[in-house]
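Hi C.,

You asked whether I'd gotten around to modeling the 105-residue construct. I have! Everything is below, sequence then structure, no commentary in between.
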Amino acid sequence: MAAKIKKGDKVVVLAGRDKGKAGEVLQVMPKDGRAVVRGVNMVKKHTKQSQNSEGGIISKEATIDLSNIAMADPKDGKATRVGFKILDDGRKVRFAKRSGDLIDG
């Protein structure tokens, strides 16, 4: 099946402690059904000092389940479902079902 959410997409969180937050997808792991979204699901990680990085407590994004995020509509930024259509020139593109706008035009 074609990927509904890809790296670089703007998404909205539907469930969890970050519900309502929006961010950009940094990484998608289709086999695990998870994604990393900028500024969402932040966790504190204790790191030991090494030769190239300083030790201490750093904040980083943890993965979030794909079922808990949805594409942000290009028109109004609200959550939308994603559909696929084939254009006259033969390209398969994604579109927002909420507004009908093309996502990757």
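If it helps when you're writing up: The CA atoms of residues 34 and 65 lie 4 Å apart.

Thanks,
B.
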